[in-house]
Amino acid sequence: MDRFRTMESFVRVARASSFTIAAHQLGLSRALVSRHIGDLETRLGVKLINRTTRSLHLTEEGTAYLAFCEQVQRQIEASEHALARTRAEPSGTLKVAAPKSFGAVHMADALVDFAQAQPHLRVSLILEDVSFRRGYDFVARGLDVAVRISSLRSSSVAEHKIGDVEWVLCASPDYLARAGRPARPADLADHACLIHVHVAANDRIWRFEGPRGEIAVKVKDAFSSNSALALGKAARAGIGIALVPRYSVTDGLADGSLVALLPRHRVAQRPLLVVHPRATAVPPKVQVFVEFLRAWVAKRSVN
User: Fold this and answer.
1) pLDDT at residue 94, as a whole number
2) Where are the extended beta strands (E) located within 177-248?
3) What SS3 class is residue 58?
4) Looking at residue 87, what is its pLDDT?
5) Res 133: pLDDT
6) May I ask the CATH architecture of the domain 167-268?
7) The dihedral sign for the CA sequence 156, 157, 158, 160
8) Which secondary structure element, helix H or strand E, spans residue 250, and what is its range?
């Protein structure tokens, strides 16, 4: 017999001082409720209720056991209420991983705003760059979500597009004075290039969309990094030509220390993604974060 069912029957009988009333409250037969009490007494090895034809009352052991049962019920109710509050209002800890460059430029601001909007959540932002060729082990890292500018291409995760990131081809005036300005994408094969690793299946193949369709060029690396900010610094130092997210070189393009190249050949935008483990029921805190970040990105320029 189910232990909690017999405990519930005992509590109802003890409170009502009646098997008949308890049976009605539980939607059971009087005989079944009586059997519950008998099974409970047998399992515990003590008499809980003294019964006569006209009345019943608890034994000393029954009084003590009633107090125990009521305490257990209160704990169960409190836990259920806490879970219900979690569903209605996210709480606990949300741990977010983001690329170092994008995280430093944009995600820090976004997570601060999110933490202010969700005071019952403890928010943690981890800045790290993870290889394109392996998936996040969310459990081992203790992560809830990851923000990425490339797909993990894994069936074990769910990906939500929350915006687009614009990429730009650029170099310093000093580099262009020494090496010449490329006139078409194919010219890049003869230049020193700065490679952003781990954002595409093949980091050294750069793709452009021009008047005659897509063009793919295999480039040679003079410098490589998984940080767009580091690549921007290398470009400003004149090491070579960089293909990087625009947000990482905005200041350089504005002050003239970097020059945008091949304006007639567009670099395709790449999606900004929120990634989390695929599950039947997505935690409310993750749902709220995805919705918040999508709205946050829509109101601001992350290029």
Assistant:
1) 93
2) 192-196, 205-210, 213-218, 220-225, 241-245
3) strand
4) 57
5) 41
6) 3-Layer(aba) Sandwich (3.40)
7) negative
8) helix 250-255
Give the pLDDT score at 84: 62
pLDDT given at position 74: 84
Per-residue pLDDT at 134: 46
How many CB atoms are closer than 10 A to CB 36?
A: 25
Q: Among residues 97, 182, 78, 170, which one has the least CA distance to residue 140? A: 97
Ranges of residues in the chain whose predicted pLDDT is under 70: 1, 81-89, 129-137, 201, 301-303
Q: What is the pLDDT of residue 167?
A: 92
Same fold yes or no, 92-165+271-299 and 167-268: yes
Of 1.25.40.10, 3.20.20.100, 3.40.50.300, 3.40.190.10, the CATH number of 92-165+271-299 is 3.40.190.10
Torsion sign across C-alpha atoms 140, 142, 144, 145: negative
DSSP string, 136-171: --HHHHT-SEEEESS----TTEEEEEEEEE-EEEEE
As a dihedral over the C-alpha atoms of residue 178, residue 181, residue 184, residue 189, rounded to 10 degrees, the angle is 20
- Distances in Å between the Cα of 3 and the Cα atoms of 25, 36, 37, 38, 73 are 18, 9, 11, 12, 13
CA atoms within 13 A on the CB side of 142: 7
